[in-house]
Amino acid sequence: MLWEIAVSGVTDADWQSLVLDSESPVLVEFWAPWCGPCRMIHPIIDELAKQYAGKLKCYKVNTDESPSVATRYGIRSIPTVIIFKNGEKKDAVIGAVPKSTLTTSIEKFL
Description:
By secondary structure, this protein is of the alpha/beta class.
């Protein structure tokens, strides 16, 4: 049986501990409930979380609820997916992109 891995939300409050202090690379999707393309990319992020379980942590940031994190990383359009490693922003993919685009980006940092 495959474990259901739900992608957790991150807020301004737990950003440091969950993302920047993480031992493994972290993929973060910046999204908002009113964003159509975000809904298209959600299932892809969920698949990636399962595919890379144990190697990569995946989180979602609701930019409406946690605007300071979004502002800090200059998020201008959503969805934006950012990959962090050792607390640093390593790569960013903007827009609803195919899974292969995100996989290519992830593989560079594992």
